[in-house]
Amino acid sequence: MKMKRGTISILTFAAAVLALSQISACTSQSLETTYATLEESIDRYIASHFSDSVAYTIHRNAGSNRVTVNPSDSAGFEIPSDTLMAGGTVVFDYALYLFGNSFPPQDMIAATTEELAGQGGIWGDSTTFVPVTVNLSDKHLLPGLRNGLLGVYAGEECYILFSAKYGFGNKEINAIPKMSSLMYHVWVHSIEN
């Protein structure tokens, strides 16, 4: 029994499409597995370094983890009712680190103050240092940072941690390697809703 050339071409094409879709599904599944592993690592880190509920308060929001450093005189301290809402604006200083298992974090890649940049050894003579002003509705804001900043209050010091899924994903961006989880150490100056 002979098959026509067109039938063979269609069968070959169908087999190729099926193979590519299976490879794509495996790649997607592998990526999700990697993200899950990164998020488990962050959860273990938080449990290991921030378990003191007197010193820290943990907030989780859509893949972001915010660890608020409670004021040292926090006996009876209540979070102010004026917290950052979706669409609000926040002014803050920060140090950005590649997430690792050390505390305090080691791999600083950006900072907004000369003191922090000096600690991380990341600045030159032409560097200017100013607090950052961010509106949470900015579409260019990393989802992990946006979700972590939601709910902060003026005067808050916190750490915001998130996996590559909510950061730059499988892309290398400047000093940030592919699949890097990030950790921001944030000092909030003001908020406006």
UniProtKB/TrEMBL annotation:
Residues 1-25 form the signal peptide. One of its GO terms (molecular function) is peptidyl-prolyl cis-trans isomerase activity. Residues 87-192 form the PPIase FKBP-type domain. Its EC number is 5.2.1.8. It comes from the Bacteria. Pfam families: FKBP_C (PF00254). It is an enzyme of class 5 (isomerase). Keywords: Isomerase, Rotamase, Signal. It catalyses: [protein]-peptidylproline (omega=180) = [protein]-peptidylproline (omega=0). InterPro entries: PPIase_dom_sf, PPIase_FKBP_dom. Belongs to the FKBP-type PPIase family. This is Peptidyl-prolyl cis-trans isomerase. It comes from Candidatus Merdivivens faecigallinarum. The lineage of its organism: Bacteria, Pseudomonadati, Bacteroidota, Bacteroidia, Bacteroidales.
